Amino acid sequence: MASTIYDALIVGAGPAGLSAALGLSRVHRSKVVFTKPLDAGFRNEGAEEMHNVLSRDCTPPADFRQISKDQIMKYSTTEFVAAEITFLKKIEPNDKDQIALPSHFEALDRDGRKWHGRKIVLATGSVEVLPTNIPGYKENWPQNIFQCLFCDGHERSHLPFGMIGFSPMHAHAAQMANLLVTKTSGPPTIFSNGPIPETESMLKALESVKALGCKVETGKIDRLVPAESPEVGVTVHLEDGKSMHLGFLTDKPPTVLASRDLIDQLGLEVESHSLMGEHIKDLELGGTTKVSGVFVVGDAGTPMKAVANAISSGANAAANLTQQLVMEDLQKLLTSRPN
């Protein structure tokens, strides 16, 4: 492994990493795709279908990943390795232990195995930080609590539904949720999970959601209970004794970057958006970063976290990465030519 220098090391095998691998396969670039440990899962692990992805709408995520891997393997330029990468570093030609190798990156996995690659593609994604103060929240995520109504919600739009939390931002979210309202669902019920402060901004937001026809429940949530199959949905129990069965709830917990240690090792900067969560700062078109040779794709590189965006970012990075390889190879040829 250590004697081979691949064109790229792709850390992560979700939609973004797979898309980058496919793009590089089309131009015969060698690469290793490192998959997460089998027990680590993916960001929306537990979601039954992926939506809003052209030609793959309503496809189970595991099926999507398998179809993608099968198509990539046909090109015979990709190795898929079930390894958890724990350390990444850039090796320059003047490193004493690597004097015979050109500038490249080294990846080390938890078992001490090493791989070398000319470029790094980080496709490690993000994870939601679920609230711990609402009993039953984790048990309903993501089957009954949806964070994106473009991705989920339509299939249950005939059922009553609700929103968790209340703030001025929730007034805008209620407008979006109102797009799913049907004759049988009615406007969403907003569960503020406690009294709403009577500030000017809150009162204005409250006026907006009531104008949309939303009912507002200010009682504290006691617990969320998922329906038992074949039924769907969730029952919201409030501390005051009220309960309501809904087809789904919508909420947007904050996200943090997965594999933050790798991001820090490479010297990449991180910024945080109050609504959209963490992402790596200052990316350019095609996923290039301030660290030469490092590309970031997928949820880790944008506040707009969605499968379709991740696929696009992987394809763009593959094109940009290939251009860099081509230019480097040409420069090497030019400098090695005799005068």
Features:
7 helices, FAD/NAD(P)-binding domain, oxidoreductase, 2 domains, Ferredoxin-NADP_redctase_2, 339 residues, FAD/NAD-binding_dom, 5-stranded parallel sheet, alpha/beta, oxidoreductase activity, FAD/NAD-bd_sf
How would you describe what is shown here?
The protein is an alpha/beta fold and 339 residues long. It has two domains: 5-127 and 254-336, FAD/NAD(P)-binding domain (3-Layer(bba) Sandwich), CATH 3.50.50; 132-250, FAD/NAD(P)-binding domain, CATH 3.50.50. Helix content is 26%, strand content 25%. The chain contains seven helices and 19 strands. The chain has helices spanning 15-26, 61-73, 137-140, 168-177, 200-211, 260-265, 307-336; strands spanning 5-11, 31-35, 78-82, 85-91, 104-109, 114-122, 126-128, 145-146, 161-164, 189-191, 215-217, 221-226, 234-238, 243-246, 248-250, 255-257, 270-273, 277-280, 294-296. The strands form five sheets. Strands 1, 2, 3, 4, 5, 6 and 19 form a seven-stranded mixed beta sheet that branches. Helix 4 (168-177) links the parallel strand 9 (161-164) and strand 10. Helix 1 (15-26) runs parallel beside helix 2 and helix 4 (168-177) packs parallel to helix 5 (200-211). Belongs to the class-II pyridine nucleotide-disulfide oxidoreductase family. Residues 6-314 form the FAD/NAD(P)-binding domain. This is Thioredoxin reductase glit. InterPro entries: FAD/NAD-bd_sf, FAD/NAD-binding_dom, Ferredoxin-NADP_redctase_2. GO terms for molecular function: oxidoreductase activity.
